[in-house]
Amino acid sequence: MIPATDITPAMPLTMIFRFRGGMGMKAPAAIQATFADFKLIRGRKVAQLVFEVPIEQADAALTSLGGLPSSVDERWCALCRLDLSKAKEPARDEPQKPKRKMAELPLSQQAALLCEREAFWRYMREFECYHSAEDNESATAALRHYLGINSRSEIVEGSKVADAFLALKSRFEFWLNEP
Q: pLDDT tens across 60-106, in order?
């Protein structure tokens, strides 16, 4: 829900609706439209709110609303304002960096990723006797204690700490992939 303090008069509205009478919805349940006009219909004691959508989206909007209005089939809608100032910017067409394989990462990053895995926590509890490994933080503490270091950044290629880490990681992966 958008706080009332975040709502501005020029803010577009989104119509979110549910068909009355138990009819199912097959189309998207929301459209984005601009509040364009307000009309009083005195003879019927109602007000009309007019919303505009780009012509390219008209068919989709009508489909979402269940087609053209009919005097026989009443459809109720709910309206809510959108705060576009808090909307995320659309993704740019910049190519995303390809994900690196675990083995290509520095050992300290591999250790950090390992400590996030619940399977590693279980391995540390059951096979390395670190019964306190219940979450990322305690698994990190267990790994530091096991390696005799104060920080995972001390796991540097070619060091004895790195050899001990790689051996632990190898045993974990073997345990993980055991038939």
A: 888 888 788 877 877 788 778 877 777 766 666 667 778 888 888 99
0.70 exceeded by pTM: no
Q: What is the DSSP letter of 144?
A: H
pLDDT < 50 regions, the chain: 1-25
The CA angle 79-82-85, to the nearest 5 degrees, is: 170
Q: Please check whether residue 155 is in contact with residue 161, taking contact to mean a CB–CB distance below 8 angstroms.
A: yes
Closest by CA to 55, choosing from 33, 76, 38, 78, is 33
Q: Sketch the domain layout of the chain as residue ranges.
A: 8-84, 102-177
